[in-house]
Write a structure and sequence with these properties.
This protein is an alpha+beta fold. It contains eleven helices and 27 strands. 37% of the residues are buried. The chain has a six-stranded mixed β-sheet. A four-stranded antiparallel β-sheet has the order 15-25-18-23. A three-stranded antiparallel β-sheet has the order 2-1-11, with no helix packed on it.
Amino acid sequence: MWMSTFSRVALPALQRSTSAMARPALRACSRPGLQTAGQVSSRLTSVQLRGQQTLGSASLPLARHSVRHARALDEERMMEVEWEDGGQSLYPFTWLRDNCQCPLCTLESAQARKLLMADLDIHTGVDTVEVINDNKVSIVWPNQHTSVFDAEWLKKRCFSPAARQAMQEELFLNKRYYWDSKLRIPTADYQEVLRDDKAALAWLLALRRVGIVYLKGAPAEQGQVAKLAERIGYLRLTFYGHTWQVQDKYMANNVAYTSGRLSLHTDYPALHFAPGVQFLHCIKQAVEGGESEVVDGFHMAEQLQREDPEAFRTLSSLRVDFTDTGVDYCDFMLQSKKCIIDVDNEGRVERINYNNATRESVLDFPLHQVQPFYRALKAYVDIMNRPENVVTYRMEPGDLVTFDNWRLLHGRRSYISRPDMLRHLEGAYLDWDEVMSRLRILRSSVQDKA
């Protein structure tokens, strides 16, 4: 077992949410050079990740906060809370009334709102605001309804930019660790992930942050991807079935079911909502060839934006047609339209959609945009294929790789099999909603046991 930069930096951050039993499960990491999303200059060292949270730090419990004073600002229609540490927070009256935690307004067993929007007075004032016992704030409304809010609940929902960013990071773990060919893929033990919550949490945190985790020690037989999926929730059913067998097939309905080279791609852009996470389990490997290749699509998009801003704008604004037709689990004829690079409303890359095999010949652009599109796509693919950006590895029977299909592009070198050594991988998909749900549950469970 070895410890690398990633292990030395990321795993200590899990100490309060993950016991020493789980930390050895995540064995590998990156060499120096790993980057953090949004900060090209930020690099992992054995000391710190400058300006960013380390892996799992969003899962750590917040410090307790005490209310010094609370008052109503009637003209601004806000409640002001002064904290014992000297800070202040403002909360709109309408938001407070909308989020009353009493049994009439909230179904506690489901943490769901019962108060109807039709019954919400969006211009309400307040009668009184006071700090009561147990570090809570009580509000009496004009109709004499009373709302009581816990200090920690209020603090986490503060409207300051810093508090909002911290809450979003806790909920979604949006920060990513960018990497290139120097990456040593984080590695965990398959059996330990199945049986130990702390090991499973470390696995999913790394999957979210780094985008790829290698699991060793699975039995070299079908059914292991389904068993791993049960650790999270359930598999994503697609037109290729709940699971699918990557083997040479006569009259193949997918280029993956041949022995030829597969260029770097994401899976299933022909679906409007492509699977978020992919599992691939090696049951038998080829006699020669068949090495896997992966690149960090987010990092490559960042490089493209830096080197060729016009190409980045083209791929993040023009919607491309994808198609997939055939018969497998059932017959299918798919069509979708997507940007190659999806960005959010702040311009940050959030998804890559690219598969050259299923890119449709229909190109729904005006004539003057056709050549710029090809130029932009070629520039992006050329960056992906630079040797300094590609990680290459060879799976052996019992190895199982898990990766982010919205972020990573993966490929395969051509291979040679023989009748007694036919290459065989089993694959499966999950969605990020299910994966993140399990991650949050594990994080809460591990914290409660700490």
